[in-house]
Amino acid sequence: MREIRDLNPGAAVRVAAPATSANLGPGFDAMGLALELRDEVELAVVDGPDTARVEGEGAEALPTDGDHLILRLAHAHLTRRGFRAPGLALRAVNRIPHARGLGSSAAAVVTAVLGAEGLLPVAERLAPEELLDATARREGHPDNVAPALVGGATVSWAREGGRGWATAPLALHPDVTPVVAIPDTTLSTRTARSVLPASVAHAVAAEQAGRAALLTLALTARPDLLLPATRDRLHQDARAEAMPSSAALVAGLRAAGHAAVVSGAGPTVLVLAPGEEAARRAVDAVGGLTGGDGTAWRVLTPGVAAEGARVDSLHHG
């Protein structure tokens, strides 16, 4: 039986993880983009019960004790790594909206795992390439955690033989400018995935593969191709009934020439604009297409987070 080592009270770490938009249209469960909108977390080993202090998005609804997701994930990760904390104190400033398709759960996973790793002795910490498996294992797929870890745009895939995950950064063209339209409604990832078909026609799969390949070209070298490159036939149509306002906004924006997609599982809508002027036009277009059904939309141009999650050791205990 493996020995469990105790962490000393006083060790503390700070982690800041970016929001992410997964899928980007046809890159289902494989592609993602980091956005410069960050949750900041401080995690400390304490000689006492778990506590959580949260500010910002979702603060009024989140647990203030050991039931907080980040605390549960951090303890579970420490156990897997052969360590134990008598208690953990969490302080969080949340800027990523919850249940909107902007990677809030992935940011929680990343901050929990990187925070737990930051509490360990330096010689015991996982190598950067091992962190993808440690985080994707909890999410079930790497499309959000990969860009949250490394920043920018990423494409990820399953290693042969079920040996975990791999990811590669894309050299994002500097003109690619994200715009996000965030509704005041929420949608759980579980609900969004439950409406997906169990199988698709060969022709649909073939078209989807071509669009995903084109998306890689558009993101890295030809942003003028973003509109056709973001056409999806695998998941967005199936999910339209679960988020009718978002589906209508995507359709209206695309009809007006904007590369709009559902961000992750939704209901946020992402536009990948080929430059700042195109981004301004997209913002104006959102304003002109929304408001008819009573849904309130918040429109942001957060910029691409070129850097992934940041970790700072505050005290080694």
Automatic annotation (TrEMBL):
Signal peptide limits: none
Record-annotated GHMP kinase N-terminal domain positions: 70-152
Catalytic reaction annotation: L-homoserine + ATP = O-phospho-L-homoserine + ADP + H(+)
Record family assignment: Belongs to the GHMP kinase family. Homoserine kinase subfamily.
InterPro entries: GHMP_kinase_C_dom, GHMP_kinase_C_sf, GHMP_kinase_N_dom, GHMP_knse_ATP-bd_CS, Homoserine_kinase, Ribosomal_Su5_D2-typ_SF, Ribsml_uS5_D2-typ_fold_subgr
EC number(s) from the headed UniProt entry: 2.7.1.39
Family annotation (SUPFAM superfamilies): GHMP Kinase, C-terminal domain, Ribosomal protein S5 domain 2-like
Record's keyword annotation contains Translocase: no
Main location as per UniProt: cytoplasm
Record NCBIfam families: thrB
Pathway: Amino-acid biosynthesis; L-threonine biosynthesis; L-threonine from L-aspartate: step 4/5
Residues that bind ATP: 97-107
Transferase listed as a keyword: yes
Main function: Catalyzes the ATP-dependent phosphorylation of L-homoserine to L-homoserine phosphate.
PROSITE patterns with a match to the protein in the record: GHMP_KINASES_ATP
GO BP field: threonine biosynthetic process
Swiss-Prot/TrEMBL keywords: Amino-acid biosynthesis, ATP-binding, Cytoplasm, Kinase, Nucleotide-binding, Threonine biosynthesis, Transferase
Subcellular localization(s) per the UniProt record: Cytoplasm
GO molecular function, a single term: homoserine kinase activity
Phylogenetic lineage: Bacteria, Bacillati, Actinomycetota, Actinomycetes, Micrococcales
Name the UniProt record assigns to this protein: Homoserine kinase
Organism superkingdom: Bacteria
Pfam families attached to this UniProt entry: GHMP_kinases_C, GHMP_kinases_N
